[in-house]
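Quick start: what a row looks like.
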Amino acid sequence: MLLAKDKRQAVNTAVAGMSQRLVPLMVCAWLFSAILGQYMRVSGMIPVLVEFLRSLQVTGGVFVGVTFLVASVTATCTGTAVGTILMVTPVMFPLGAETGANPTLVLGAILAGGAFGDDYSPLSDTTIASAETQGVDIGESSRVRFKYVIGPALVALALYVIFGSSGNAHPATQAASAGPQDWTRVLMLIAPALVIGMSIMGADNILAMLSGIVCAVILGVATGAVPLNQLF
């Protein structure tokens, strides 16, 4: 506005831009996907998956490849690459040292997996913005994007597995194995899967995200994955 000769016009133009449908849609996407992502984080689903990896004794390059897949799934379910990095890194990076994985490639796998999942996720703000501005259905946009990114993702996965080993494993004290009841936390994946499925089938994106949140609340309370004192 400091650079505008007609400041009234500058203000009116800004307001006109903010009044477009895309803006509240983006705000809702940020809010609702953040809520769903928070439920996924609080549920402790990722640590349970880590315990599963420990039980399989996944090591070296295979661990780096699995890290890529975990980051990809997390980003697809939450629609955020940055959030994925914040959720996955503290869990997978330390474990990589135990398994003899190359630490640099572990971080690279997390970054790449986050970018891959975020690129085609119907929950991603970039997917929503690009689809809405071009007048394209969000679910259709996700399907088309997936066709383009799955090829490079498979190549990256193969290279992570081949070159991901450091050859130096440093076994740490094994954490207590997750009990049978802990595995029910993985059921939380049903919530984002519902959102993605509804979006791809053509349902309204806001309705899909709200449905996912309700599903996450029901699953979280029913399985005890999301404590009632953290529900709100």
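That is the whole record. DSSP finds ten helices and no strands in the chain. The radius of gyration is 20 Å.
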